[in-house]
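INTERNAL AUDIT FORM
Audit reference: QA-55
Scope: verify that the stored structure record matches its stored sequence.
Auditor: D.O.
Record contents follow.
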Amino acid sequence: MDISPKQWMGETFGLYGAGYNLAWAIGPMIGGYLAYVFRLNSVFLAGSIICFVSMFIVASVSPKSRGKSIIKGIKDVIEKDGLFAAEMNFLRHSNITVKMVLVIEFVVYFLYSIKWAFIPLFMNGYSNLDVGFVFFASTIPFAIFDVLVGWISDKIGKRRLILLGLFLGSIATLLFTTSSSIISFACFAFLMGFSMTFIEPLISPSLAEFTPKRRRGTIVGIGGLAVDSAYLIGPIVGGILSKYFGFSAPFIFSSIMLFLTGILAVFLLKER
C-alpha cells in the first residue's frame, strides 16, 4: 500500500497476488508428483529445503529501517496502545464498507480452508496426482487473471467485480459437489479459483481506500486476524458438517455463505 501509486493500487496488488498464487498453483502439482513417484514425506522434505534456501535469500537482502526497530514497535503496542484496544476502537468507528470488506475477506478464506482441508477427503479414491491436479486447477486462475482483474478494477471500480466473484463463487462451489470425474473436479475447481480472482486481489486496495494512511498498518493487521480466524474456524466447522452430513456439506455451507455475503454486499459495499 505504501509504495504503490494510488491509481495503480489494484494492478499492483494483482501483480503481487499473481506471484504468490503461482506458487499455490505449482505447489500441489509438484507435491502430488513427489508423493506419487517417491513417498508422501518427500513433499515435506522438499518444503523444508525451499524454506531453508528462502531464509538465506531473505537474510542476504539488507533491510532498510523506517525509523523504529521491531522490538521498539512491539513495546509501543503493549505499553502505549493498550494491546489492540486502539485497533478494536478504530474498527468500531470505521466505515461500514471497511467492515463489509473484512467480512468478505473472512468468508473467502473460510472457503480456502474448506478447500485445502476437504478436497482430498471429498476425492477419496483418486490418486495423489489427481488431487494435486485439482488443486493446481483451483489456483492457476490467480496466476493468470490477478493482474488483469487489478487493471480492470482501476478502470471500472472494485465493487462490481467483488459482487461478481461472490455470486459466481457460490455457484461454482455448489457445482463442485456434483463432480464425479477428474475432469469435472478440475473444471469446477478452476471456476472456483476464477471467481475468487475477482475478490482476493481487491480486498487490500478496498481497505486502503477507506482507511487513513496512518492507520493502514492497523487495518492490514485486522485483515490478517480475519484470515487467521477463517483458517482456524473453517476446518472445525467443516469437520462437524462432514461428520453428520458427508464431505459435500462443507462446500454447500461455503456456497451459502458466499451467496448471503453477496446479498449483504449489494447493500453495504460502497465504491469510492
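Auditor finding: record pair retrieved intact. Residues 216-245 form the longest helix (30 residues).
Action required: none
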